[in-house]
Amino acid sequence: MCVLVCSRERVGDAATHLLVELALRGEALAIDGGNRLQAYPLARALRERTNRFDFFCQRVLIRRAFTAYQLLALLESLPLLTSPLVILDPLASFYDETLPVGQARWLVQRCLQEIERLKRAAPVFLLLRTCPLPQRRFLQDMVCRQADTLFYEQEEITSFVQPALF
Amino acid sequence: MARVEKTGWLMDVYTRPSGELVCWLLSEDGQRWLLPMDFPVTFYAAGSLAVLRQAWRFLRGRGVQLSRQVRRDLFHGERVVLSATLDLPGRLPETYRRLAQAFPVLDYYDADLPLSVRFVAGTQVPLLGRCRFETDGQRLLGLQPLESAWEMQPSLPPLRVMEIECDAEPALHPPQEIVIRCDRRCYRFPLQPLRAFVVNLQALLGTYDPDVILTRYGDTWLFPFLSEHAPSFNPNRDEQMKVEFRRERSLFAYGQVLYRGAQALLFGRWHIDRCNAALFAEIGLTGALEMARVTGLGVQEAVRKSPGAGITAMQMQTALRDGVLIPAVKQQAEATRTLVSLIRYDRGGMVYQPLVGVHRHVAELDFASMYPAIMVRYNISPETLYQRDAPAGLIPRTLQPLLVKRLALKHCLHTLDRRDSRVSDLKARQTALKWLLVVCFGYLGYKNARFGRVESHEAVTAISRELLLQAKENAEDMGFTILHMYVDSLFVKREDTRTEADFLPLAEKIQAETGIGVTLEGVYRWLVFLPACRDQRIPVANRYFGVFEDGTLKYRGIALRRHDTCPYVAQTQLDILSCLAQADDPREQWKEAWGLVNQRVRSLQRRQAAIEGLQMAVKLSRDPQAFRRPSAAAQAARQLQAEGVAVRAGMRLFFWFTQQGVSVAPPAAEEVDWDHYARLVLRAAGEILDVLQPVEKKQQYYLPLLK
Questions:
Q1: Of A57, A67, A160, the CB nearest to B448
Q2: B550, CA 20 to 30 Å: which among B90, B123, B304, B689?
Q3: CATH number of A2-152
Q4: For chain A, which residues make up each domain, given as ranges?
């Protein structure tokens, strides 16, 4: 399992690049856990790389989960795949303050068990956004501990910006 | 007391700390009753039989009646479930919480429903509905409905209302005086000494015994303040209950950050904080009662929650009546689709960009409650997806009576004279229903909706696009020019059409072809579609202003409609529109309108405008520390924080532009940035007037004013 931790904005771009490369090589399934998949940029990026746009578009399969429970149900419903699996922003819905922390921890554990099952058959890529809530940072750590390969993308340090003079 | 039978209204239900359910009833003789009632409640768990057996053992001996049942899940069909019934409804949340903690792997149903929804579905007596009840003075022994929630002219309980206001905004200045209005009398009490104030308030509550306490800042200041400084004060009618406080929160909904202030809920009477009730300003008490009546949510809940919570409650009632299980969490995920399919189907409503400029004798045709009507007519519901000739789904069955009632109220409004005393109440009621219908579509795709499904959501927009295209073709067949189409409305004109009667055949034809009701919003004497501010060649959807034949103005997408426009600028823009409305063609009044702008700008330059009219309002899109640039909102937030005010995302802040930046306190006249306000007025004027004349003419009006 390969995990990339990056900023919220970068998840979409990273997914676009990864999915284009995968689609050019075969079928790929993208599971969007945080509404991060950018369909139009992905289509444009594919068009830049091939003139058989329709054909390659069919190779990108998508499923969206809008809640933590849906993500778990979705992972549970997946059979062992032969094509790569890309999971975008899987923890987005786990940061929802209406989801109790204990429940979130249990759901992440269950999701990781499912990912463990799936990665035996095909490569799994997780694109995580940096946790915005310090009190739920442990969820990100749980996922990262499970990674076979882990990439951290340094976040740009933002602070008060001096307004332009002109 | 002997057993008596009364008729009256069911006002509310709640549970006491002991867990028993209490009904608040108002009998026709004016007596208020708080009567406990036996009302067992049931929730269910489903999953593997081995785990269910463990759950059974876990619950045994905890005062829960357990049984094995087969019940229907909307998505999974019939399921074997463990049914757990509690005699005391107030004990259910804790029992469920413990069970879910011990067995998170199980699926839970009917476990977190609002008590009032459960009660209404179980007894068929709607909240605020007339009913017959039996009591021995100690308990409620029987309850029968005499009225349905869908009654067009429901009988109204005679409510006693008390209004409480303070003399300052508590977040900025500690209030000194409290004004209490009740039964046409007005009382003013100093807040200090507090003991005297509390004694007076308690005495007034005892004397007038109000059913509704309407406050300003009651949620966020008055009741928390009294609870802290006078803990023995109890404003509830039910003396066994204490005020229930709920914490404040910021949430992301409807594409924006919303702030919900803390809440203070009462028992045996209602407390409504005008400043913390989402729709109250628009629908008032009458609308709030209507919302509670049809949704089954208590009045205090209905006014504070979003209409989405109301629609969910209605769906829950339908499910309970049909014996369908209501999942505690939604688990159905989207089916696998290709990128092409996502791009093709995940779209919104149809927009046909407008033809920029002035148009005369234009008709606006609207599909009446288009999305809900589509959901009903095309049977769109999560369980009917991909099915032909399926029986009516849960969502259409929920929406059907709501749609019928709203259209009937709207029709009734059309038949009444504007000065009729019933108009305001009917308007409030139909607006309350309108909001429920507005959100019902969004809730199909909402992540936390119990019976939502994103594919159903997409189906509705797909059908709406098709219908709008059909309407366009019908109009063009009849020789009309389409000026603009926006989701559920279209603007058309034809050389020979002037009056409403000329456009009615088109409305009828579209209605006949599409099967969805079409209303003629009106015929504009003239209508102006505005271009983009940055480029006059680019049209902008849903940005226009115009005047109907009867002189009524309608405007969308201009400064006047924005919440962050200060009253002075908004009034100027409204006056410009009124000035233009005097002519048959707005271009004829262009110079007069500029004269008006001139006058307003000069008034600012002479510092003659009232400070209150210059107050800006802005909604914080994020927490103050998350701002990266020192925008006006960020500055205002930091000033408030420096004064010790807790500022959170979604809050509405008020401030003035000053020479130093912004000020959250009213500034002195010499501190105000008058030039900034003059520029705002000019920008608002230009937004309307620029499109009416060529560029070179504009210069001669703008430049002198800018000097």
A1: A67
A2: B689
A3: 3.40.50.300
A4: 2-152
- Say yes or no: domain B342-385+453-557 is CATH 3.90.1600.10: yes
DSSP B444-512: HH-TT-TT--HHHHHHHHHHHHHHHHHHHHHHHHTTPEEEEEETTEEEEE-TT--SHHHHHHHHHHHHH
**Concatenated DSSP letters of B83-95:** EEEESSGGGHHHH
What's the Cα-to-Cα distance from B50 to each of B56, B102, B583, rounded to whole Å? 10, 14, 79
- Contact residues, chain A to chain B, C-beta under 8 Å: 29, 37, 39-40, 42-43, 46, 54, 57-67, 69-74, 77, 93, 97-98, 102-103, 106, 158-161, 163
- What are the pLDDT digits (tens) for B160-186? 999 999 988 887 778 999 999 998 899
Say if CB B280 and CB B274 are below 8 A apart.
yes
> Would strands A28-32 and B77-86 be described as parallel, antiparallel, or unpaired?
unpaired
Within B297-453, where are the H helices? Answer: 299-304, 307-322, 339-345, 370-377, 394-415, 423-445
Q: Cβ(A161)–Cβ(B629) under 8 Å?
A: yes
A66 and B332 in contact by Cβ < 8 A? no
- Residue A21 has φ and ψ, to the nearest 5°, of -60, -45
B628–A161 CB contact, under 8 Å? yes
- Chain B residues within 8 A of A97 when measuring between CB atoms: 249
Q: Out of A62, A70, A160, whose CB is closest to B331?
A: A70
Which residues of A fall within a CB distance of 8 Å from B339? 39, 42-43, 46, 57-58, 60-62
Asked if CATH classification 1.10.472 holds for the domain at B161-325, the reply, yes or no, is no
Q: What is the mean pLDDT of chain B?
A: 91
* Of A117-126, B316-325, B448-457, minimum mean pLDDT range: B448-457
Q: Each residue of B105-143: b (16+ CB within 10 Å) or e?
A: ebbbbbbbbbbbbbbbbebebbbbbbbebebeeeebeeb
Nearest Cα residue to B546 out of B571, B560, B529:
B529
Query: B249 contacts in A (CB within 8 Å)?
Result: 97
Query: pLDDT by residue (tens digit) across B108-125?
Result: 999 999 999 999 999 999
Residue B707: pLDDT over 60? no
Rounded distance between C-alpha atoms, residue B327 and residue B75, angstroms: 10
- For the domain spanning B4-145, the CATH number is 3.30.342
Nearest to A67 among B330, B335, B342 (CB): B330
Torsion (CA) A136, A142, A143, A144 in degrees, nearest 10 = 100
Q: What is the ipTM of this complex?
A: 0.88
Break chain B into its structural domains and give their ranges.
4-145, 161-325, 342-385+453-557
Q: Give the pLDDT confidence of B190-203 residue by residue, as tens digits.
A: 999 999 999 999 99
Euclidean distance between CA atoms B518 and B488, whole angstroms: 10
Give the 3-state secondary structure of B207-236. HHCCCEEEECCHHHHHHHHHHHHCCCCCCC
Amino acid in position B341:
S
Our separate counts of H helices and E strands in chain A read: 6, 6
Which stretches within A26-67 are classed as H helix? 39-49, 53-57
B29-50 per-position pLDDT tens digit: 999 999 999 999 999 999 999 9
Of B12, B33, B22, which Cα lies nearest the Cα of B212? B12
User: Which residues on chain B are in Cβ contact (under 8 Å) with A160?
Assistant: 628-630
Distances (CA, A) of B63 to A106, B14, B40, B112, B311: 28, 21, 12, 19, 33
Token pair, residue B313, equals: 């409650």
pLDDT in tens, B230-265: 999 999 999 999 999 988 876 666 556 667 778 999
